[in-house]
Amino acid sequence: SVKRLMAPDIANLKGQRPIVSLTSYHAHTAAIADKYCEFLLVGDSLGMVMHGFETTVPVTLDLMIMHGKAVVRGSKRALVVVDMPFGSYEESPQIAFRNAARVMKETNCGAVKLEGGRRMAETIRYLVDRGVPVLAHIGLTPQSINVIGGFKAQGCQREQWEVLEDDARAVAEAGAFAVVLEALAEPLARRITDAIPIPTIGIGASADCDGQILVMEDMLGLSPRVPKFVKEFGRVGEAIEGAIAAYADEVRARSFPSTKHTYEMKSGATGGSPE
Ligand code: KIV
Ligand code: NA
């Protein structure tokens, strides 16, 4: 069996080669992405993509654990990182540890992710010191959407840079193995990438990051609306619609199922077996 990558393996890729990652919420897509990605993120974006919520705020720990288990089962080689959902870690390092430990025990994932820079540094240190590898996430932090007032790019004004650079330094010093930079104006991601010893994983933060991540459904062309930073590498939504339309036509025309997809009697038997 293949050895699964661990958080330090990801950290060690800085300066070696670009880190490839995607979100994944379910077993079959995890198995495919596992062949190409260093890590798979069970992102709380699953609340919007899989469950139709308007933001990530309603996502629960139970939901994250359910999808986390599916992705761990579906993959073999990639590190699986599970997002800590809103409300499960902000209150105190102790509560964060209790919930992160539950996520790790129940899903068998190799790391967790949480949102926030300096304000979460103490918690990151507390978790890492107790055996929980942490992927940090700064810039646009969608769990704070109700405070920010919308999904907006960060660092578009020069005065904001120092705050974001301080956040990046703080999570690196606290022991995060890497940091997601979401929706940062150029060339801030390059400055941060040069300034800290851990890998930066960009989403809408330029090609100067140490790695990239996208929401899988967005890059597949399966999401109805996508942010500016998403490139649609496939047209899976169109492929699904084409297949469903063809199925509906054939059912209505009674041309599906044909004899090829129907069981025959065996001679001497009373019925077919479903193989
Ligand atoms: O939830 C998510 O999908 C994320 C990534 C986009 C970084 O946090
Ligand atoms: Na997330």
Q: What would you say this structure looks like, in words?
A:
There is one protein chain. The protein is α/β, with parallel strands linked by helices and 275 residues long. The chain folds into two domains: 228 residues, TIM Barrel, CATH 3.20.20.60; 41 residues, no CATH class. It has eleven helices and eight strands. Strands 1-2-3-4-5-6-7-8 form an eight-stranded parallel β-barrel, surrounded by five helices. Helix 2 links the parallel strand 1 and strand 2. It is globular. The structure holds 3-methyl-2-oxobutanoic acid (KIV) and sodium ion.
Write the layout of secondary structure elements.
Layout: H1 7-11, E1 19-23, H2 27-33, E2 39-42, H3 46-49, H4 61-74, E3 79-83, H5 93-107, E4 111-115, H6 121-129, E5 134-139, H7 145-148, H8 161-173, E6 178-182, H9 188-195, E7 200-203, E8 211-214, H10 216-220, H11 236-252
Parallel strand pairs: 1-2, 1-8, 2-3, 3-4, 4-5, 5-6, 6-7, 7-8
Helix pairs in contact: 2-4, 4-5, 5-6, 8-9
This protein binds 3-methyl-2-oxobutanoic acid and sodium ion.
* Bound small molecules, deduplicated: 3-methyl-2-oxobutanoic acid, sodium ion
CATH 4th-level superfamily of the largest domain: Phosphoenolpyruvate-binding domains
Uncertain segments:
none
Overall spatial form: globular
Using only C-alpha atoms, the radius of gyration works out to 22 Å
Which fold name is given in CATH as the topology of the largest domain? Answer: TIM Barrel
Number of strands: 8
| Cross-sheet strand order for the largest sheet | 1-2-3-4-5-6-7-8
CATH class of the largest domain: Alpha Beta
**Proportion of beta-strand residues:** 5-15%
**Estimated helix fraction:** 25-40%
How many discrete domains? 2
Total helices: the number is 11
- Quickly give the CATH architecture of the largest domain: Alpha-Beta Barrel
Mean pLDDT: 96
